Amino acid sequence: MDSHLVFAVFSAVFVVYSFSVYVRGMLFGTTRPNLVSYILWFALLFIAVVAQYSSGASWSVVMPTMALVCCIAIIGLILFGYGYRHYSLLDGVCFVLGLCAIAAWYFTNEPRFAIVISLTASFIAAIPTIAKTYRDPYSEHVGAWVANFVAGFFSLLSTRIIDTANLAYPVYILLESALITGLAFLGQRSMRR
Length: 193
What we know:
Blueprint: H1 3-27, H2 35-54, H3 62-82, H4 89-106, H5 111-135, H6 142-158, H7 164-192
Helix pairs in contact: 1-3, 1-6, 2-3, 2-4, 2-5, 4-5, 5-7, 6-7
């Protein structure tokens, strides 16, 4: 059996597990995602998936494709009242900057450049969630972000093509998930003392 396919399947399984744990937390009111981050992440995941396919995707495209589907469901739940409700100027600025980065992608036909813009915009989109997690560490589910980190690791291993287009997204997910996991875990731990 093809090991790249096996890693892609593991990545997809961990994305779905992360999603299920996250949604469970949302339904019980313990996890409160930021709508600004998820709307931008949806747009950016769409860009990443399209760019990877157009530049010769490897099995590493499985993770962002699964994440895109999960992101749609999370946005739906947020719109039905299961999200974070305290928005600030930072959220608005990040939303505008994220939209500007998406617009920049629109004006290029170069898939690799689109991925770089997408990842930059994804970091901008993550800023409201990072700030929210710092202020309210219990608003994010540590286990879901750990599973997302593991999914990124398996996605990295799943690629057959070692290039920026196929490695950038999994590496970014590893870094982003580690940061949010660390903030939530350490914040929750310090609040328990």
